[in-house]
Q: What sequence folds into this?
């Protein structure tokens, strides 16, 4: 199970990278052309009209696509306390954390899946770009589901050993 979940998390991580790059491109494009628009006295307008739509949905995709791999590699944390605890207690706390993340991911997956079904049935689209809204909520549901699976897999199998200092701030 862990291998398949890792593969899904890596694929979603690549999607998160693409969504982040697209988000940066949309914002940079509009910032540049907004300056030209202002400097030209509103004569030159090459701004992307759906920039707000694109930015908000690309951010949704980037965040929920990145979460499973972030859980796999370890969220940023402070290890001062966990390294001072007995190994058994520290491991139990790690597994409790992973189960909590799995629960959070499962709830988000359920909510996004329900929202996806609802917006698909209604045929909802984004405001400016008129793209089907279910694409974005569906990707968020997939990312949240993968997060739940990753948390569960890590809780059951344990975390892979990391080099000292990796995955945390000491």
A:
């Amino acid at each position: 199970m862990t291998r398949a979940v890792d593969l899904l998390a890596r694929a979603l991580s690549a999607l998160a990278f693409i969504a982040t790059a697209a988000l940066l491109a949309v914002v940079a494009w509009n910032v540049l052309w907004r300056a030209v628009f202002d400097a030209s006295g509103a004569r030159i307008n090459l701004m992307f009209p759906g920039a707000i739509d694109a930015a908000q949905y690309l951010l949704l995709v980037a965040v929920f696509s990145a979460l499973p791999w972030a859980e796999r590699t370890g969220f940023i944390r402070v290890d001062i306390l966990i390294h001072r605890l007995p190994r058994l207690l520290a491991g139990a706390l790690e597994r409790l954390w992973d189960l909590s993340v799995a629960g959070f991911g499962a709830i988000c997956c359920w909510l996004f899946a329900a929202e996806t079904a609802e917006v698909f049935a209604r045929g909802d689209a984004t405001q400016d770009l008129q793209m089907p809204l279910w694409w974005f909520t569906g990707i968020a549901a997939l990312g949240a589901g993968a997060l739940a699976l990753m948390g569960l897999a890590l809780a059951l199998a344990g975390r892979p050993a990391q080099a000292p200092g990796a995955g945390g701030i000491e």
